[in-house]
Amino acid sequence: MSDKLVMSTGNKAVAAAVKMAQPTVVAAYPITPQTEVIEAIADYVEGGEMTARYIPVESEHSAMTACIGAAITGVRVFTATSSHGLLYMHEMLHWAAGARLPIVMGQVNRTIAPGWNIWAEHSDSLSQRDTGWLQIYVSTVQEAYDATLMAFRIAEDNRVLLPVMINMDGFLLSHIMQPFEMTEPGDFIPPIHLPHAIDVNDPHGYGAMSPANVHYQFRFDMEKSMRAAREVIAETEAEFAKRFGRSYAPVEEYLCDDADVVIVAMGTMGKEAEVAADFLRSEGIKAGVMRIRWLRPFPELNIAGKELVVIDRDYSFGFGGVIAGEIQARYPEAKMARVIAGLGGQEVTFEDMAEFVRSRKIGTEFWFGIPEEEQ
Questions:
Q1: How would you class 22 by CB atoms within 10 Å of its CB: exposed for 0-12, middle for 13-18, buried for 19 or more?
Q2: Which of 1, 77, 170, 269 is such that its CA lies 20 to 30 A from the CA of 355?
Q3: What DSSP line would sit under 222-272, residue for residue?
């Protein structure tokens, strides 16, 4: 398939990928900084470039409910949201995953009020990490486009049948202009086949009561599918690289082979950290970067013998940074310094990240911008 190089924002790249995937139903409600995604899709539908039924609902809760209703019939479904909109969906996020519906959602990361703030933070999506949705965090416009294409194939694979959330940093990626290759996916995304789709010619109950002696089995079945998703993700990314020449992995490593200290981050901060690693290398510090892309299912990390500086653009109050906590739970032997930075759009440069590495104190948590005597 031929690729076409275009300039686009992250939001419009996601919308362009959705157009290529040709869902049957799109239901959404506008919220900054996501609105551009659904505006572009609405334009595609209005202009005849998409044959989808576009449903402009009255709230995000209704958006996810409409997506669930459509997905139950066995058709491809997409939605998009951000921040408080995602929180408003919370109840139905559990329902979508528990009903094993392969809905794909573009989620633009934005902090939670109060105070009122429209800038990037990962607390919105991380607060939903236990709902049963697969979660990926992207760092470039190209990756946002490619991840959206792959999300449909992964979610709809019968070994998975779980919804996928594509997360990108508000404004830092959603509204940044970058060149990317627009790919015609062809048969890379096969037709959807939902084995438990509602069929009017063969009526069955759906979402009936599940008593205590069977309910836990449904939950374990979700966990088995989340485990199987690791293999499906690997297969999908390998096939994508073979067809289109762009390679991805659950964790993107940069200069990690001989690194003594590794910066761990997600999203645009993970990409910015690569510049910090180059900067530190010029000073003789063997630094590398691990950018976590797939948070659910949680990936394997090659951290043996390395010190970590984990930068969290989020916080779990009374506990600590979420990503650092996830790593410590999976790898209790990990030697790490925890940094809380970038909350609510706080500017964090590669020079700042380099200083996090130079001044790291293993076993401690540091809030960037807060005087040390107050921490």
A1: middle
A2: 170
A3: HHHHHHHHHHHHHHHHHHHHHHHS----SEEEES-TT-SEEEEE-HHHHHH
Beta strand ranges found along 39-89 (DSSP E) = 53-56, 77-82
Domain that holds residue 268: 251-374
**Is residue 137 located within the same domain as residue 275?**
no
Of the residues 190, 214, 244, which one is the last residue of a structural domain?
244
CATH of the domain at 310: 3.40.50.920
Angstrom distance (rounded) from CA 297 to CA 274: 24
Q: Name the phi and psi angles at 157, rounded to 5.
A: -65, 130
Burial class (CB in 10 A: 0-12, 13-18, 19+), 273: buried
Question: Are 66 and 25 within 8 A, CB to CB?
Answer: yes
- Pair (157, 220) in one structural domain: yes
Per the CB < 8 A criterion, the answer to whether 27 and 198 are in contact is no
Of 212, 244, 276, the domain-final residue:
244
- In terms of Cα–Cα distance, which of 145, 131, 162 is closest to 225? 162
CA–CA separation, 224 vs 188, rounded Å?
25
The rounded distance, in Å, linking the Cα atoms of 20 and 189 is 9
DSSP codes of every residue in 309-359: EEEESS-BTTTB-HHHHHHHHH-TT-EEEEEE--GGG----HHHHHHHHHT
Report the number of distinct structural domains present in the chain: 2
Please tell me the distance from the alpha carbon of residue 356 to that of residue 266, in angstroms, as a whole number: 16
Q: What is the pTM of this model?
A: 0.97
pLDDT in tens, 289-300: 999 999 999 999
